[in-house]
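To make this tangible, this section ends with a sequence with its structure tokens:
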Amino acid sequence: MPESKGRKKAVYTPPPTTKGERKVARIGSPSWLAPTMVALFVIGLAYIVIFYIAGSQIPVMRDLSALLNVLIGFAFIAGGFVLATRWK
């Protein structure tokens, strides 16, 4: 029985690398992310608590509806959660 010819593959040669041009991968989060995230959580919670305790005495909160005041507090908290998704 005749034998088939073997396939010849070209030898792989990796492209030449020049030293000094390597990109350093940044691992982790920016330094501002965690404090900003925690600040947004605290501001949102404080806004809602202050609204329920003294909202009728604060002019800006008194002028807005109750739903809008709660939504403002939750918007700050949601901003904290958005930043939490980027935290590594």
